[in-house]
Amino acid sequence: MNNSLSYWSLSRSPYYSFIFVLPFFAIYEVMVLFLSRDEMVTLRNGADVLLRQFLALFGEWGFYILSISFIIIFLTVFLLQKKDWNITVVKSDYLLCMLAEGIFWGFILYLLMRYVPALLMFPSGKDLIRQVVLAIGAGLYEEFVFRVVAVTAVSQLFKLVFMWKKNWRLVMSVITCAALFSGFHFVGPYGDTFDVSVFLYRLFAGTLLGTLYVVRGFGIVAYTHMIYDFIVLFGLTVTLP
User: Fold this and answer.
1) Count of CB atoms situated within 10 Å of the CB of 195
2) Which residue ranges make up each domain of the chain?
3) CA-based Rg of the chain, rounded to a whole angstrom?
C-alpha cells in the first residue's frame, strides 16, 4: 500500500467506503428478502421516493435494480481506485477507526438534533425489524443519492452555470441538496404532510450530513446516519407498550 496515504485520506476514499458499508448493505438486502412486496414499498425514505417509484415502472424487477446499480457502481469505483492507488491490502485498524468515528459522529448528530424541535426524521412503528431495515436503508441510499450523487452533480452544475469557486460551490451544493433531502420526505403516497418546522428540521440534519460527507466521505456519513437512526429507534422502542 502507498505509505503516503494516511487514515484521513484513505478513510474518506470510495475504496474504503465500499468495504466499510458492504456488511450493512448485505444485511439490508437479506432482511428485505424476508419482507413482503407491500412491506418493501412502504419502507420509504427520501431516496426511495426519487428512485424506487421510478424503477417500479419496470415491474417486479424494478425493486431490485436500485440495489444492483448500487453494488455495480461502487464495485467499479472500488476496483478502479484499488488499481490507481496501488492498494494491495486493507488495514483493519483503519476500518475499526472508521467504525469508532461513525459512532462518534452519530452521537454528535443525535445530541445536536436534541436541541431542534423533537420531531422524528422517520415514521415510528412497533415493528422493530421494519424499523431497523428502514434505518439501514436510509443510511445507505439517502446518503448515496443526496450526498454522493446529488452534491457532486449540483456542484458541477454550479460550476458550469455560475463559474463559482470550489469552496463556494460545495457550500451551496450541500445546502441545496439538504433542501432536496428534506423536501422528498413529503413527496408521494407515503410522504408526510408538509410542515415548515419539520422541513427545517430535516434541512438542518441534511446540512450537517452533507458537510460531514464533503469533509469525511461516504462511508463515515452513511454510518453516522445509521447510528443516529438506531439511537432514535431503540430510544423509542424501550418506551413502547
Assistant:
1) 11
2) 7-237
3) 18
Helices (H) and strands (E) in the chain, counts: 12, 0
Higher pLDDT, 121 or 28: 28
Which range is least confidently modeled, 10-14, 24-28, 53-57?
Answer: 53-57
Does residue 70 have a pLDDT over 80?
A: no
Mean pLDDT of 119-143: 69
Most distant CA pair in the chain, distance: 56
Helix axes 92-113, 218-237, angle to 10 degrees: 50
pTM score of the predicted model: 0.65
Cα gap 1→58, rounded to integer Å: 43
Q: How far apart are the first and last CA of the chain?
A: 53
d(CA 1, CA 5): 8
Whether the Cβ atoms of residue 107 and residue 41 lie closer than 8 Å to each other: no
Place of cell 446529488: 150
